[in-house]
Design goal:
7-stranded antiparallel beta sheet; single chain; alpha+beta
């Protein structure tokens, strides 16, 4: 079991969103894991790979935003990528699954997180969850449009 700092102690919280994409899993997974292209579909987010299994994602409008550092813990193309969130604010586990589905793929994005700030973080979680889930659904819809237009081919960077 990973170490959890005291301010993250307690039960984790959960959030998930899903979308159907009219594109094959291989194409969808390639787009999801092309980190520099996250800015094309993930709401207010840029991402980059900084090590063999380390990713940094910045969400927000600079200077107001959040740096989310992650370690890839499971890599099973074209079906699954799991990460451990290792940042100062965002801690926990995330997964994006891509499953074959009639007419394309089903993408499921799930997060199990430890809210920061102890009881305060837990108290505001219902609001954060609503907003986060709305942003995740919006991002997944943008991913679907991009993949369906043939945008799932890896970038040259």
């Amino acid at each position: 079991m990973p170490y959890v700092r005291p301010e993250f102690a307690g039960r984790p919280v959960y959030m998930a969103a899903a979308v159907h994409v009219a594109a094959p899993p291989e194409q969808v997974f390639a787009l999801i894991t092309d980190w520099p292209r996250h800015q094309e579909w993930m709401f207010l987010t840029t991402a980059r790979q900084v090590g063999p299994d380390t990713i940094e994602a910045y969400t927000g409008l600079r200077p107001f935003g959040l740096l989310d550092t992650m370690t890839i813990t499971q890599w099973r193309p074209p079906a699954l990528v799991r990460v451990e969130h290792t940042g100062r604010i965002v801690r926990g586990h995330g997964a994006i699954r891509v499953r074959p589905q009639a007419g394309g793929s089903r993408v499921i994005w799930a997060e199990q997180l430890w809210p920061p700030l102890g009881p305060l973080g837990r108290a505001v979680w219902p609001i954060v969850r609503l907003v986060g889930a709305a942003f995740a659904r919006r991002s997944l819809r943008r991913l679907a449009v991009l993949a369906e237009r043939g945008g799932g081919r890896p970038s040259s960077t």
